[in-house]
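Box 3.1 A note on notation
Throughout this textbook, protein chains are presented in two layers. The first layer is the amino acid sequence; the second is a token string describing backbone geometry. Keep the layers aligned when reading.
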Amino acid sequence: MRKIRVFISSVQSEFSEERQMLFDYLISDSLLGLFFEPFIFEKMPAVEHSVSKVYLGEVERCSIYIGLFGRTYGYEDAEGISPTEREFDYAGQLHKTRLIFITNHKDTERNGKEAALIRKAEGVVVRKSFTSMNDLKASVYTSLVRYLEEKEFIRTSPFDATLNKVATLDDIDSQKIRDFVALARSKRNFPLPVDAPVKTILTHLNLMQGKQLTNAAILLFGKSPQNFFLSSHVKCAHFHGTEITKPIPSYQTYKGDVFQLVNQAVDFILSKIDLEIGDRSQSTEIGTNYEIPSAAVAEAVVNAVAHRDYSSNASVQVMLFHDRLEIWNPGQLPYGLTTEKLKKPHSSIPANLLLAEPMYLSGYIERIGTGTGDIVNWCNNAGLPREPEFVQEEFFKIIIWRKYKKNTLAGQATGQATGQVTGQATDDVLLGIRKVVLVIGKSTKRDKIQDALGLKGRDNFMKNYLSPALEEAYVEMIYPDTPRHPDQAYRLTQKGIELKEALLKIEKDKNR
């Protein structure tokens, strides 16, 4: 099949990175690369002919014209017209499909002629604004998928971009939308206000077309995503040994939107791994770090949830063994990307771009395209025994190796501290108590304790950490008679102080 020629306009230097990004993306994406052949002027060989004639010739050859309009107008010919405007007009005369993407700037910030060009474009074609390269990529992705559907090149669009025939706005949780916008504004300067209409926000994120929602919208902001997608859950299991054995000591299946899935899975892992104590050479506060860097844990879980194959009946699986953490997801690496390349900087080709972009905007993904390399660096810097592994088989796996220990610090310290925890307490409860005791200062509020442990879910924190520490009398409330006091905070009891001293002594002896 002959590929569809896409002309990416805007020769001005303002968009040089964006042009290159779109070129790389269109030739690398597993779907778009099958259908589209992009052209940018940077890839054009030296020619003796008039540059403007060459560009207009490329417009003739293309089926789709992509225009990037921003603040500058660019070079002007003898008639005071820029190449970009010439190309836009010529594409219109030839009845080419024109897709226009405009930076999110005010008219007062633009060159006067550029502002006039944008107003002209708005009068004849549908245009889309963007605030970042990732935002632009998501918008181009959606537009080209729609083109393929309209021209019947494909009968079924990618899962995340598919319009759901059943879901309505009543299935979307408006509070989740508002919470997302507030977070995205603080993390990435998201342009829309918190009180913007839900439909406006979803349309801006390419998650809604007309009155129809995409599958990605439901996974991100749905009230009950599992009512639509049964396999969109995460299974977490903890094994005391190095093999899968039954009965499983600790097993959970988590449901909810993709943000909740990530939070719950990360909290599950952090609740099972050891918290290590640093020294006080740089601060009076006791430094603490998880045996596996919490950033690596979060990145690995986000990778699995964001890039999995949602058309599969399988689910994301998290398995924590005594010597390693394994995170599986039903998915395949994009064409041309290998497990070895994942350890180095590489092009970002998200399997579910419309899902990944909001996760980036809200800070769940720090830098698209660097996550797997970051996992390797974080784990190497933490002194883990082996470098993380990426395995592509029927499932895609991330394996992070733990520091193998015969006895956890929690078990040693609890036995040495005055006052034993009751025989009903499990190893997980002991570990949770130990972590709370380590991070509580003279008087510490609940949210500060939770933040220090890197935990997102309040219910999980109360159930597995703070409540057991209170029940076993290692911690007490500052205002015990009014549990919901606005200034409520927590401090160590004498029993808690002794446990903390025992923990610090063991760590000090270990490091001698």
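The chain has four domains: 4-157, 161-227, 234-401, 409-510. The domain at 234-401 is CATH 3.30.565.60 (Heat Shock Protein 90).
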